[in-house]
Amino acid sequence: xxxxxxxxxxxxxxxxxxSKVDVVMGFQRGTVPMMSQPVLIRKVNEVERLHWDSYxxxxxxxxxxKRKERIAVVAKGCDSRNLVVQILENQIKREQLYIxxxxxxxxxxxxxVLGALTGKEPLAVSETDSQLVIxxxxxxxxxxxxxxxxxxxxxxxxxxxxxxxxxxAEPVPEQTxxxxxxxxxxxxxxxxxxxxQYFRELLAPCIRCYACRNACPMCYCxxxxxxxxxxxxxxxxxxxxxTATFHFLRAFHLAGRCSDCGNCQRVCPVGINMRQLxxxxxxxxxxxxxxxxxxxxxxxxxxxxxxxxxxxxxxx
Amino acid sequence: xxxxxxxxxxxxxxxxxxxxxxxxxxxxxxxxxQTGPASRLIKQLPEVA
Lengths: 316, 49
Fold this sequence. Notes:
The structure holds 2 protein chains of 2 kinds. Chain A is α/β, with parallel strands linked by helices. Chain A has 10 helices and 8 strands. In chain A, a hairpin with an 8-residue loop joins β1 and β2 (37-41). In chain A, 34% of the residues are buried. Chain B has one domain. Chain B is 37% helix and 0% strand. Chain B has one helix spanning 18-35. The longest helix of chain B has 18 residues, at 18-35. The chains are: A alpha/beta, B mainly alpha. Chain A binds chain B through residues 190, 192-199, 235, 239, 241-242, 244-245, 248, 312, 314-316, and chain B through 1-5, 9-12, 40-44.
């Protein structure tokens, strides 16, 4: 990870010095451990702030739509797929972007780490390829890295960027023996009553803070349907029907566009696994259209193209 | 998402297919009537005096 940091800084310095880009979008250390945060670097003498570790789970593609400058952006596999979709959807131009690709071994879920610390406060973290080292007042814990991955990273099948101008390291091996849809199949098997109950309970803790929407690189509408007031599509309360409608509709809006970067679940203050909704749609798109989000600039997303031979078994 | 089977229908009807539209609308409304009043995705507004 240290090596990644050096490579990112080196690339940023070169790009800014040669005036290839106006700004470098990357991560800096957070004010508390395990909270690396996005940063925009515009000057060569600021590149030392750039940092990389296993807590850079945020998706920087979220900050790109409609920007005008030339931007170098640090992108993991999932982020790069979102960049592809944003380019296809005319939110940003390929020529504006210089993509610093991160071959990714998965990001760490800080909540799971905090859980394992059982109340002890982490003050400094470091890591090796296989271990997380967490230090605090009077303790040092070594944790097995692979056990603390974010849920979406554990089942990721596209760890290497699909689009990049340079990579900070050699590509990492992709995971091939993972089952992405085990939980989705479980929900599909439920009866309508069970499923209704399941989603009610899944979404019950939601406080409608919209952190999931705000963190999502694909949620870039100037006015979200939940914020419209003329007409008002949806109540603003935490009425279960309003909340369910928000989550279901947002999931539909992401059909064939979500790369399962996990940012929604990551930022949820009440820990809702709304990725299950997105994964169901991801599975449907894959099965019906043979499409996986954002793997190539050559392929239009299935829901923004028309083909006379589109499969449409659900019509009658 | 747990809406009862039979309540939600999709159809593709051209503007030239008037009789198909009538048939589908009849069939849908018959089936929904059989399914009974909806209880899901219904919002209960608070009672005000």
